[in-house]
């Protein structure tokens, strides 16, 4: 994330800072990937990218934001990388060649480059940071930092872990990759298999961050979803016999089909049951169902991603919310809880059960999760509980739970949505008096 500058309190300064934050989130992964190809050190690459950002923060407020800020940041970062290589007196031919031949992109060339070598660099970066010399948690945390531009705090919330723990994990991971000289490449088949689960998890979490942004003023980050889906499709070409790869692609295609309907014209969130299903992207739905079928045809039991894709397919195939097969969705969540048990899966299962068999049963399942340490700061627990209490007519309790959820939410749009839902929990006589 960009370092925060002193703000003068003006709306113009705040708007400019939000714009720069958004640019950094969109461009940082491509820049870090390209720099990693140059310097072969992911920690140094991230530092160089941050240096370019600091220069932008100093210059853009007076000079204005360039027409193509991504190209500006890329060129500035690569110049910094060349300076570092030269200052380090790396005089052998290899580094002389890097310094001489590293391209400095003109803005008109940037789109072409993104479609070619930098796109490939992002996938290489994922495989590098998912190397087995790192623990699974370290791989995912580091890649979320580099690929999604998340802060340590945001990653800690994704892991439901303490922020200092995540910070130490990321620092150690970068140091280990440098010490072990992990190559910047897509591995051969025998090495690919052992990294595949971590790569799938990273792409999955990358998409989720785009689908429901952890923090900030935007409910979704569509470009992050598009990049995750692109990487998933590339991975399906690399590993066509892996059912979970196709399962993940199916899930991302199906979820992407309703991305445009998740916000209204003013950017406010629109929940699943309120979305206009006629505007769901039918091409993406067909692609998702086809990918799910490819996963099934490989003849192995459905894994976590394929099961989630099957749940998404139930929504995609229902013409209206009332026609959704909630009993099947509840059964699929039951299967998912056995394959990949977690408190969040159980919370989702409780929602499905409430839709299939009534809010009282769903509330009972949610209350059983109240003592889960991992959900202590998870805002969707009180959010779900508040919804169920509202359906049961326990409006005072529902309002308290939704207000608690709003106080825990970090995304501005989501926080306002929860506050509005809490305000709706007013008994009818009180509404009449107003």
Tell me the overall shape: globular
In which range does the helix fraction lie?
A: over 70%
Rg value: 23 Å
On the 0 to 100 scale, the average pLDDT is 85
Largest sheet: none
Structural class: mainly alpha
What's the total number of strands?
0
Stretches with pLDDT under 50, minimum 5 residues: 4-9, 101-119
Distance between the termini: 45 Å
Biased composition (Basic and acidic residues): 411-434
Region (Disordered): 407-434
GO molecular function: DNA binding; sigma factor activity
Pfam family, one: Sigma70_r4_2
Describe this structure in words.
This is RNA polymerase sigma factor. Residues 195-295 form the DUF6596 domain. Residues 407-434 are annotated as: Disordered. Residues 30-89 form the RNA polymerase sigma-70 region domain. Residues 125-177 form the RNA polymerase sigma factor 70 region 4 type domain. The chain has 434 residues and is mainly α. The chain has a domain at 1-113. Helix content is 70%, strand content 0%. The chain has helices at residues 11-39, 42-63, 69-87, 93-101, 107-129, 136-148, 152-159, 163-179, 189-211, 222-238, 243-256, 282-297, 304-316, 326-339, 343-357, 359-367, 380-391, 395-408, 412-423, 428-433. The model is unreliable at 4-9 and 101-119 (pLDDT under 50). The protein has 20 helices and no strands. The radius of gyration is 23 Å and the shape is globular.
């Amino acid at each position: 994330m960009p370092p925060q500058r002193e703000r003068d309190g003006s709306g113009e300064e705040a708007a400019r800072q939000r714009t720069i934050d958004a640019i950094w989130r969109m461009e940082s992964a491509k820049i870090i990937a390209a720099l990693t190809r140059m310097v072969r050190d992911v920690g140094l690459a991230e530092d160089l990218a941050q240096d370019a950002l600091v220069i932008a923060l100093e210059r853009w407020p007076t000079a204005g934001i360039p027409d193509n800020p991504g190209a500006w940041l890329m060129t500035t970062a690569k110049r910094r990388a060349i300076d570092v290589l030269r200052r380090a007196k790396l005089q052998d031919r290899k580094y002389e060649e890097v310094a001489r031949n590293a391209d400095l992109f003109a803005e008109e060339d940037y789109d072409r480059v993104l479609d070619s070598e930098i796109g490939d660099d992002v996938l290489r970066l994922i495989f590098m940071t998912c190397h087995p010399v790192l623990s699974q948690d370290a791989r995912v945390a580091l890649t979320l930092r580099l690929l999604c531009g998340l802060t340590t705090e945001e990653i800690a919330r994704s892991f439901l872990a303490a922020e200092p723990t995540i910070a130490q994990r990321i620092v150690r991971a970068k140091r280990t990759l440098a010490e072990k000289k992990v190559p910047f490449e897509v591995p051969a088949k025998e090495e690919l298999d052992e990294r595949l689960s971590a790569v799938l998890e990273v792409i999955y979490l990358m998409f989720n961050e785009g689908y429901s942004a952890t923090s900030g003023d935007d409910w979704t980050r569509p470009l992050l979803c598009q990049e995750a889906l692109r990487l998933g499709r590339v991975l399906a070409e690399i590993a066509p016999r892996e059912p979970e790869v196709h399962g993940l692609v199916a899930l991302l295609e199906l979820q992407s089909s309703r991305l445009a309907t998740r916000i209204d014209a003013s950017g406010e969130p629109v929940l699943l049951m309120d979305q206009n299903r006629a505007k769901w992207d039918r091409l993406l739905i067909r692609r998702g169902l086809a990918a799910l079928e490819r996963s099934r045809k490989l003849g192995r039991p459905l894994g976590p991603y394929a099961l989630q894709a099957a749940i998404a397919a139930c929504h995609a195939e229902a013409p209206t919310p009332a026609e959704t097969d909630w009993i099947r969705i509840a059964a699929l969540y039951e299967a998912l809880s056995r394959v990949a048990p977690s408190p969040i899966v159980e919370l989702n299962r409780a929602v499905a059960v409430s839709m299939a068999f009534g809010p009282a049963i769903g509330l009972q399942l949610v209350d059983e999760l109240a003592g889960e340490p991992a959900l202590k700061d998870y805002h969707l627990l009180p959010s779900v509980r508040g919804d169920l209490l509202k359906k049961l007519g326990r409006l005072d309790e529902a309002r308290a739970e939704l207000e608690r959820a709003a106080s825990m939410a970090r995304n501005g749009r989501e926080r306002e949505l929860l506050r509005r839902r809490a305000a709706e929990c007013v008994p009818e006589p009180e509404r009449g008096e107003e």
